[in-house]
Amino acid sequence: MHPNLNTDTPFKYSEAAKAEVLGLFNKYPEGRHKSALIRALHIAQEENNGWLSVPAMEHVAEVLRITPIEVFEVASFYSMFNLAPVGKYVLEFCHTGPCAIEGAERIIEYTKHKLGIGKNETTPDGMFTIKQVECLGACGYAPMMQVGEFYHEHLTESKIDQFIEDCRAGKINKGTWKMH
Amino acid sequence: MARKLLLEHAHVEGISTYEVYRKHGGYRSVEKALKTMTPDEVVEEVKKSGLRGRGGAGFPTGMKWSFLAKPEGVPRYLVCNADESEPGTFKDRYLMEKIPHLLVEGMITASYALGANTSYIYIRGEYSWILFILEKAIAEAYNAGWLGKNIMGTGYNLDLYVNIGAGAYICGEETALIESLEGKRGNPRIKPPFPAVKGLWQSPTVVNNVETIAAVVPIINDGGDEYAKIGLGRSTGTKLISASGNINRPGVYEIELNVPVEEFIYSDEYCGGIKNGKRLKACVPGGSSVPILPHYLVCKTASGEQRLMTYESLSDGGFATGSMLGSGGFIVYDEDQCIVRNTWNFSRFYAHESCGQCSPCREGTSWMEKVLRRMEHGEGKMSDIDLLADVAKKIEGNTICPLGDAAAWPVNAAIRHFREEFEWHVKEPKLCMERNFGLASEPVAAQQ
Ligand SMILES: Cc1cc2nc3c(=O)[nH]c(=O)nc-3n(C[C@H](O)[C@H](O)[C@H](O)COP(=O)(O)O)c2cc1C
Ligand code: SF4
Ligand code: FES
Asked: A67 and A108 share a domain?
């Protein structure tokens, strides 16, 4: 995984987000605030249209008073961090065993076909990205996908149709990483 | 009806709020422990209960607690493992979503027992909405005086925080979890030193599963002896089982550790039988890492005895004819499921989740994945079957953390019990492609 260097769009946390990230430091002993990094990255990713650009990671490093490489090491390790631009709605389908035997593969194929994109691709209008992820702890409610903060379970083809329609109509709540 | 200790009030309206939880007897264990017991007495009670770790390994919790080093002037930490990523497992999520205060209460009582003044719950990143459920519960507990300074005037101080991951199965391994909690990549540490001596920020640390910590609440309320009366032999108490796969009633069930497997699968109180009137083909009783059992070894052991949902009975026969209770991720397969495909799927999972530090795990898991993928797509060779077994054997026991073993066991077990199915895939490449659906019909290259 390499950082995506194709952006010079600057990034800074909103004032509220910055205050929240600095507030996280209080949870850890003196000098151990690096522990706030993962949550700080989730918040940055949300404020940077769903992905972590180099300027975003550099900003997080500055706020956390650590080096950019420490941030990149972590950002590139965890599957929830996107290091390249994504669509407005990232459909993260579970394709692990228990979901697979309850029809995950068919639902994923259906959605790919419907949107005309493959795994890790984004629709030309920038609305949808499809990701395939491993077990999300919803195996009994398969097939399922996560979009933003929320799980969508017991998926069927008609539920997918409805969901995509609702996204286009701006009716889908993705939740937020900020305190609520 | 089975006795419920953890989920008894899970369906009570509003149980996720402090008031309702308290009204149903919540936080009694904290009162009892802090006001009437010494920390050592709490540990003793947990030892008496026979409680074993619910995260997968089944190690006795009281014993684990008594290993915690207690050097003067060094803080100790309790860390709750809420990373729950073992395929087939979704019980911790259920518990935290429904009754978050049970975990908060357990954390306070357990932290007191261990002499920890700061504790953390590490939750997987995908459960972000539960992060906020827990933080709300924690805020309510602070408000009500169960957390913070001088709790109930006893002089005991405790701060409790939630830390979040970002998608990495390996962070469920306790030393990887600690690394991640320190804000780093989730690379498991070489042991020793064990976390009990050098864990979080090099301080003595206990890592326990969500369900283990929750179980401390009834143990302290009713006494360890009472808890130990439930279950069978060394499998004491109740266990949350997440049931998934081709069954009529998937979901999370709290069982007493002595329910026959047959009853668990077929009774309407639990899984309600196989879906669509199909027959049972196989079962993975404890999460993707444990050996798969063919139908004839699921309800009965090799010696013909009834198989029970206990640590001992599920592992009866060792790996030759048994499996493990593991995390309680109970996956049921009907007669239409393809074992090769499922094994490939699990191998892909482990190859994806290997942190890459040890060559046998990094190379071996992706090798197994590749071989299984080509076999599932009608491009396998007869010699691939032994090749797989050989690769699995070379990973097992040769790695820093048990993920390597966890990747090898399912492959070994599938070949052990379903060898003919692997052979059939090699002999009938066309048929096995037609029998499947979805991704299997794509060319192999498209799936990389
Ligand atoms: C690869 C791997 C993944 C694990 N994932 C989890 C997990 O998600 N949750 C968990 O509680 N334990 C998990 N464990 C077990 C932990 O390392 C540890 O043994 C456990 O949290 C101890 O808690 P317990 O004694 O209460 O069971 C995992 C272990 C390994 C090797
Ligand atoms: S066994 Fe695998 S996951 Fe565990 S430390 Fe080694 S490479 Fe990483
Ligand atoms: S296998 Fe899909 S959520 Fe567990």
From this structure: no
Q: Does B335 touch chain A (CB under 8 A)?
A: no
Same domain, A58 and A94: no
Per-residue pLDDT of chain B (448 residues; tens, 9 = 90+): 578 999 999 999 999 999 999 999 999 999 999 999 999 999 999 999 999 999 999 999 999 999 999 999 999 999 999 999 999 999 999 999 999 999 999 999 999 999 999 999 999 999 999 999 999 999 999 999 999 999 999 999 999 999 999 999 999 999 999 999 999 999 999 999 999 999 999 999 999 999 999 999 999 999 999 999 999 999 999 999 999 999 999 999 999 999 999 999 999 999 999 999 999 999 999 999 999 999 999 999 999 999 999 999 999 999 999 999 999 999 999 998 999 999 999 999 999 999 999 999 999 999 999 999 999 988 999 999 999 999 999 999 999 999 999 999 999 999 999 999 999 999 988 887 776 543 333 434 444 4
- Chain A residues whose CB is inside 8 A of the B164 CB are 38-39, 42
Chain A CA closest to residue B136: A180
Structural domain includes residue A179: no
**Helix (H) or strand (E) run with residue B73 in it:** none
Checking ipTM against 0.95, whether it exceeds it is: yes
Give the chain B residue nearest A66 (alpha carbons). B183
**Structural domain of A95:** 89-168
Q: Is A161 found in the same domain as A102?
A: yes
| Residue A48, domain member (yes or no) | yes
Scan residues 98-117 of A and list those with Cβ closer than 8 Å to B.
98, 100-102, 105-106, 108-109
A177 in a structural domain: no
Give pTM, 2 decimals: 0.96
Q: Assess if residue A173 is contained within a domain.
A: no
Please tell me if residue B182 touches chain A, with a CB cutoff of 8 Å.
yes
Residue A141 belongs to domain with CATH number: 3.40.30.10
| Long-range contacts of residues A43-48, Cβ cutoff 8 Å, at least 24 apart | A43/A13, A43/A17, A43/A177, A43/A178, A44/A11, A44/A13, A44/A17, A45/A81, A45/A82, A45/A177, A46/A176, A46/A177, A46/A178, A47/A11, A47/A13, A47/A14, A47/A17, A48/A11
A39 touches chain B (CB under 8 A): yes
Same-domain check for residues A98 and A140: yes
Give the CB-side neighbour count of residue B39, counting CA atoms within 13 A: 15
- Number of structural domains in chain A: 2
Nearest-Cα distance to chain A for B189, in Å, is 16
From chain B residues 19-58, the ones with a CB under 8 A of any chain A CB are none
